[in-house]
Design a protein that fits this description.
heterodimer, A: alpha/beta, Rossmann fold, FAD/NAD(P)-binding domain, 5-stranded parallel β-sheet, 17 helices, about 25% strand, B: alpha/beta, 3 domains, 4-stranded parallel β-sheet
Chain lengths: ~675, ~400
């Protein structure tokens, strides 16, 4: 039974905060205080320079004790900032923390108005409304939800790998789910990393191996999360595991099957090498792939296509019996308490800018393709040989392809300037070609980045400040491509003949980011990357409790930032796991059974699947733990049988009447 | 159609924008977002020759030194081809908004207007066409059309399609051939159509882009009055410049008629057309994307669909196509500045374009703009390619294949 309500015989304390001049500069705080003191039920009204400061908090606590206050109203900033602070103050003063109400005098009044008189009047209205509603507040309790210590990490790039190892090293069990046949992500495709030119594989592969051998990590490759149920601390995850047609436990990674394949020559364009090389239908993506297990591509395997292959792979595998053409897709269900999304990025499709000739002129490459070309394990064993088998003598690198462009993506992709410099260095080192970097603004904000720019300039790379406007074959017909741009520092239009063009393509959200967003109940920012809870103060949290972000799925970033963010996401997950529970706000909704007609209107509307229908009673029932207090069901209920804590009809009507009652 | 949305500005620029009140309009504030990347100068067909390409103009505007730009004649090289606008990474409507405003000031300060341009603009005002032909002869070609062509002031009954013929197709001999072909194709397809005849005057687009504001407004008001007299469902025009004016400028005078260019209009009839394209041809054809129709309104695929429907014809592409097309040099008043450019020793853009066309090995250069026929035929002659390649409007090729 709800407790009897205080009908307001007194005992309300009202505190008006100056917030320095943020409020006091626009609103007459003295007039507000005097006005508040006259309102029915108000025992004391004061104003203070910074209510959130320790003396400000002490003042409220002292009043609660000395004046026997029963309710507290603070008129200050947004509840987003200090509602928690003042609830704690109310609680420390000896009252239920929900005997408190906050008036947003700053964001809703002083910051948005310039007329001091009118702003003061509005402040009065807001305070009057709060005083009338707070009398009706009921005591509420926060609930504790326990946290399952297991963690799900989605995506096995450097972000997922680093987060997984951090958590596993702290003794937590991690499920690392990766869509591809190997972990490593984009970083595994890079040759060197800027600005130190560390070999990407040399620094990444030890961490990949550590993932595989770590007792606390369950690694599932060729797998995707298909369903997310539950709530913070208690998520139930469904994972679809696609067949590899090779038994992971039985395969020893000897790769004899690849040699034995009836395809004597590799014929299938190789995804890992950006289709610049070929692989066989049975293959391993790259030599250091983790797991070190081959995979069969059923699109090109003769056994799958015709059922009539000699199966030389099976023959050579012999007793190990690792190849299983009958393997089926499996579905697994796991329980985890927290989730880290590290689903990475997609590279811009350069054919979207037709005047750069990608896909039309063979010697136009993307940055990622060149990473594979210069890599010793790549399709040309690290030699830069063009699609027409020439070695380039002049190379042009175009920055900002698919970045900073209203026609494609408006944002800066953050890494392209630096990787363009790196590629300029690597190309020059390998070919001694003349290298021209066409840039709009050179963005090198990072430790050692500007020094690297300097180094590349000293090596003799040409820098042309101008965005390339057109790339086309030299009509003179000597196989050159002409790169046309205004050299804006010289004020002349230049047409530079080159043998090879490198398009420094930007970073985009994964094509299925929207689906993933819906599956995990996240938001996306305008450009489609997952949205963090706060750009500065909660950069790895999301609006869904217990789900964290790491790496480029949140926005373009380089490897150092990605690793830092992955560590932060792991720490956030650890913080929840180690305390073992989470307190939930009590703003949940309840069904008043005697009024509920069982019409089920509310059930499909609940975004959190918190409402179920109890057949025996023919009534709706709300799971308190799942309810997030959004109020959708309350508003939709045709019989008015759903009430929400702290937003009860009476409380809202009282607040509205208070707001509209002319003083 | 399924083409990239490069540089398409679906909203007409505000009619009362000026260099003084730029910041009051979103299009004007956008100018201030310029990052000085030089894409405009790099893509401009005359970028190498311009003392003040759009990038520098914006720089001077910000520095408060536009006066220097006004006294240079470099903006006379702007052929209003929308290349800078289509590629601008900040989405600045250079061709639609900024450049005409600056060009107006340049023209005002020119010690002497180039005579050819002066004459064309005067003719438009006096006769409603740039050639200075008699307005009473505008519909003279109808007599030799070979099919009935209804003229609305003679027979003002409601009609499905009002065909806005425009000047070059009305007067210029090669243009008239296109007009006749269009009439025949419409007739064969059973289109209920009529023309304004001698009541029609130039839509005035080239007047606007060479910034003769008064002339342009006079023509716009006149044509709106005439259009208002008749009942029709749709306006079809064969001139991409008129199409551009109607779509992006006349809207300011509440032009809200359904509008098509002939090419997309005929593409709607593709199913009816195909069985009638009986004559098998054996030529190789390349298509020149007109700036107004292509780059400004994203009509890229329809002309190609029509060309590919002609049995036997083989379509090849030039190096610069679709959004990357090279202007024929006729826009923005360039049609009447050939003598001026020649005196300065500039390469004619039509010659640059036909060199690319010839390099494809095609026999036919297909176009969809009446300006281009004369420009390209002339350029082919000057370069000695007249035996290698002929210029045809797409509608002419259709009429030929339909044997009408």
């Amino acid at each position: 039974m709800p407790e009897p309500k205080d009908t307001g015989s007194g005992g309300i304390g009202v505190y008006v905060c100056h917030c320095g001049t943020n409020i006091a500069g626009t609103v007459d705080v003295n007039a507000l205080t005097e006005y508040a003191a006259t309102l029915p039920g108000v025992t004391v009204a004061r104003n203070y320079k910074y209510a959130c400061s320790t003396p400000g908090q002490e003042l409220i606590k002292r009043d609660i004790h000395e004046l026997n206050l029963t309710r507290v109203v603070v008129a200050a900033c947004s509840p987003c900032l200090h509602e928690k602070t003042f609830r704690n103050v109310t609680s420390e003063g000896g009252l239920n923390p929900y005997y408190f109400h906050m008036v947003n005098l700053r964001e809703h009044d002083s910051w948005v108005h310039t007329d001091k008189k009118a702003a003061t009047e509005k402040g009065k209205d807001l305070i009057r409304a709060a005083v009338r509603r707070v009398r009706l507040h009921r005591p509420l309790e926060r609930k504790r939800v326990s946290i399952d210590p297991n963690v799900l990490i989605v995506g096995g790039g450097i972000a997922g790998i680093h987060a997984a190892l951090t958590l596993a090293n702290a003794g937590k069990h991690v499920y690392l789910v990766e869509r591809d046949a190997t972990i490593g992500g984009h970083m595994a495709m890079f040759d060197k990393t800027f600005p130190t030119l560390d070999c990407a594989a040399c620094i990444l592969t030890p961490k990949m191996t550590a993932v595989k051998s770590h007792p606390n990590i369950t690694l599932w490759t060729l797998s995707e999360v298909t369903q997310v149920d539950g709530y913070v601390g208690n998520y139930k995850i469904t994972v679809k595991r696609k067949p590899r047609y090779v038994l992971e436990d039985a395969c020893v990674g000897c790769m004899e099957c690849i040699d034995a394949c009836v395809y004597k020559q590799a014929k299938v364009p190789d995804e890992f090498n950006m289709y610049l090389g070929k692989r066989k239908p049975i293959y391993i993506p790259f030599p250091q792939a983790v797991p070190q297990v081959v995979v069969i591509d059923r699109e090109s395997c003769i056994e799958f296509k015709s059922g009539k292959c000699k199966k030389t792979c099976v023959e050579v595998c012999a007793d190990r019996k690792a190849i299983d053409f009958q393997q089926q897709e499996k579905t697994e269900t796991i329980d985890v308490g927290t989730i880290i999304l590290a689903t990475g990025f997609f590279t811009f499709n350069a054919t979207r800018i037709p005047y750069y000739g990608y896909g039309t002129y063979p010697n136009v490459y993307t940055g990622l393709e060149v990473e594979r070309l210069v890599n010793a394990a790549g399709p040309t064993s690290g030699e830069i040989i063009l699609r027409d088998n020439r070695k380039p003598k002049a190379v042009g690198i175009v920055h900002c392809v698919g970045s900073r462009d209203e026609n494609t993506n408006r944002y800066c992709s953050r890494v392209c300037c630096m990787y363009s410099l790196k590629l300029a260095h690597l190309i020059k080192e390998k070919t001694d070609a003349e290298v021209f970097n066409f840039y709009i603004d050179m963005r090198t904000p990072g430790k050692g980045f500007e020094e690297f720019y300097n180094r590349v300039a000293e090596e003799g790379t040409h820098f042309i400040r101008g965005r390339v406007a057109d790339i086309y074959p030299d009509p003179a017909g000597d196989g050159h491509l002409l790169m046309c741009a205004e050299d804006t520092l010289m004020g002349t239009v230049r047409k530079i003949p080159v043998d090879m063009v490198v398009l420094s393509t930007g970073l985009e959200p994964q094509p299925d980011a929207q689906e993933v967003r819906r599956r995990f109940h996240l938001s996306c920012s305008g450009e489609g990357f997952f949205l963090e809870r706060h750009p500065k103060l909660a950069p790895v949290s999301t609006f869904t409790d217990g789900i964290f972000l790491a790496g480029c799925c949140q926005g373009p970033k380089d490897i150092p930032d990605t690793v830092a963010q992955a560590g932060a996401a792991a720490a956030e997950a650890l913080a929840l796991i180690d305390i073992g529970y989470i307190e939930q706000e009590p703003y949940t909704a309840q069904v008043l059974e005697e009024v509920c007609s069982g019409c089920k209107t509310c059930i499909p509307l609940c975004p959190y699947q918190a409402i179920s229908f109890v057949e025996e009673k023919k009534k709706a029932e709300i799971n308190e733990v799942l309810c997030k207090g959004c109020g959708t069901c309350v508003a939709s209920c045709p019989s008015g049988s759903i009430q929400q804590n702290l937003f009860e009809d009476e409380e809202i009507f009282e607040e509205v009447e208070g707001l509209l009652a002319y003083a | 159609m399924g083409t990239a949305n490069h540089g398409v500005f679906s909203l007409p620029p505000p009619i009362d924008i000026s260099l003084e009140n730029l910041a009051e309009f979103p299009e004007g504030r956008r100018v201030l977002t310029c990052i000085q990347c030089g894409t405009c100068a790099g893509t401009c067909p005359y970028g190498e020759l311009m003392q003040y390409p759009p990038r520098r103009i914006i720089g001077m505007l910000r520095a408060g030194e536009l006066e220097k730009v006004f006294t240079s004649d470099s903006l006379l090289n702007c052929v209003a081809c929308y290349a800078c606008t289509a590629k601008c990474p900040r989405g600045i409507d250079l061709t639609g908004v900024l450049l005409p405003l600056v060009k107006e000031q340049v023209l005002l300060r020119l010690p002497e207007m180039p005579a050819e341009l002066q004459r064309a603009l005067e003719n438009k005002l006096r006769y409603g066409n740039p050639m200075g032909e008699s307005p009473r002869k505008r519909a003279a070609w109808v007599k030799t059309a070979g099919v009935p062509v209804r003229i609305l002031h003679e027979d003002p009954r409601p009609v499905d399609v009002l065909w806005f013929v425009e000047c070059y197709s009305s007067y210029y001999p090669r243009g008239q051939q296109c007009a006749r072909a269009t009439a025949k194709v419409f007739h064969a397809l059973g289109v209920d159509f009529a023309i304004l005849g001698n009541e029609e005057k130039c839509a005035g687009e080239c007047g606007r882009l060479s910034w003769e504001r008064g002339l342009y407004n006079t023509l716009m008001e006149y044509n709106m009055l005439v259009l208002g007299k008749y009942q029709f469902k749709l306006i079809v025009t064969s001139c991409p410049h008129a199409y551009d004016a109607f779509r992006y400028r006349y809207t300011a005078l509440r032009f809200n008629y359904d509008l098509r260019h002939t090419i997309p209009f005929l593409t709607q009839y593709l199913d009816r057309l195909k069985p009638r394209l009986r004559r098998k041809v054996s030529y190789k054809v390349t298509y020149h994307d007109s700036c107004c129709l292509g780059r400004h309104s994203s009509v890229y695929e329809e002309p190609r669909m029509l060309l590919q429907a002609i049995p036997g014809g083989k379509l090849v592409e030039m190096t610069h196509n679709r959004v990357n097309t090279i202007c024929c040099g006729g826009g923005g008043g360039g049609m009447w500045l050939d003598t001026y450019y020649k005196a300065k020793g500039y390469e004619r853009l039509s010659e640059r374009r036909v060199k690319e066309a010839v390099a494809t090995g095609a026999d036919v250069l297909a176009v969809a703009c009446p300006y281009e026929i004369s420009r390209f035929e002339d350029a082919l002659k000057v370069l000695g390619y007249e035996k290698k390649m002929i210029v045809r409007d797409i509608v002419e090729l259709l009429a030929e294949a339909m044997e009408v």
